[in-house]
Amino acid sequence: MKYVALQHEKIEIGLLSEKLINKNHGGINLFVGTIREWTGDIQTEEIRYTSYEEMALKELNKLATEVEAKWGADVVIVHRLGLLQITDVAVFIGVSTPHRAACYEGSRYIIEHLKERVPIWKEEKDVDKTRWGGIDADNS
């Protein structure tokens, strides 16, 4: 089972978690990425996520399919789009597998590759200026 989505509405963690319950799986790993206020000395006010949605959904489906095949997992990936405030949930990744090690590995695989492959862009509005792609991508 896999479920992927992009949405402007609030991410409901409980409802998405329930999709991962499988009588043959003994572990569920959840990664919930939220908007933090501070990154080092830089204070964030809000973040806007935009996307090339058709391509993003295609890549999210590929990631879910890869994890299903490699670890025998059920996978849920949901990313928020639009303007998010501090503490809002930006991304939900859930992986269920028969054993816990595969849950951790599958979840990590998705978040690391999501950032590399899925065309979702982050416009971070900090108190000093606006940054695209986050602090690490800031070349100024």
Automatic annotation (TrEMBL):
SUPFAM superfamilies on file: Molybdopterin synthase subunit MoaE (SSF54690)
Annotated Pfam families: MoaE (PF02391)
Annotated InterPro entries: MoaE_sf, Mopterin_biosynth_MoaE
Gene3D superfamilies (alphabetical): Molybdopterin biosynthesis MoaE subunit
Domain of life: Bacteria
Cited CDD domains: MoaE (cd00756)
UniProt GO BP: Mo-molybdopterin cofactor biosynthetic process
PANTHER family: MOLYBDOPTERIN SYNTHASE RELATED
Protein name: Molybdenum cofactor biosynthesis protein MoaE
Originating organism: Listeria swaminathanii
Source species taxonomy: Bacteria, Bacillati, Bacillota, Bacilli, Bacillales
